[in-house]
Amino acid sequence: MYLQTYKAVGRRYTPGVRTQAIFFDLDNTLYPRSSGVWTAARARIEEYMHARLGIPRGRVPELRDELLATYGTTLQGLMAHYQVDADDYLLFVHDLPIEEMLRPNARLSRMLAGLPQQKWVFTNASLEHARRVLVALGVSQYFNGILDIKAMGLRNKPQPEPYQLALESAGLPAAACLFADDLGHNLEPAKRLGARTALVGSREPHPAADYSLAAIEDLLQTIPGLVE
Ligand SMILES: [Mg+2]
Known about the structure:
By secondary structure, this protein is α/β, with parallel strands linked by helices.
């Protein structure tokens, strides 16, 4: 398995605390949409489609939106319709000046340090991108591991397989897990399995979300029972 484990932090079972593991989406969840990282990644995806695949620039945005809507990630769609090498694609689209866009987040760091749960990154992006983001935010040390697109066997959220991988990685039933994501449709499979769910980046209610948070740093004060 293509799994990066930092160290066994927070693996102890905390009596009286229902949630024993938290799965954090990465992009637009551990950092805000306003950072510009995702906008920059989208531009790299569009550049890939033009430069590597020869798709006319004018057709790229519409095709990208179509593939994203149909396959869950642009990569899945490109693999289905073009001869795309996943490694080449992931290296190209994540070639971003992350360190210029993200700074260490002391508030996030304090919150993660205080959460006794296992903490995992659960992302449709690549391991290398996830590592860079965690380092830039100054929070790598709090995570048990990163479940990236390759760990998922290139079957991205919201397909069902990644959620099974998440539960197996934590060694816990869904009822003992919390999933946080900025996309409501990525919470739906988790909710169906019986996990707790938090939508991040919007206070708007969502049918698949038990909680809606403006920012990830609000997790601890918004969701009851995460600490004893
Ligand atoms: Mg996201």
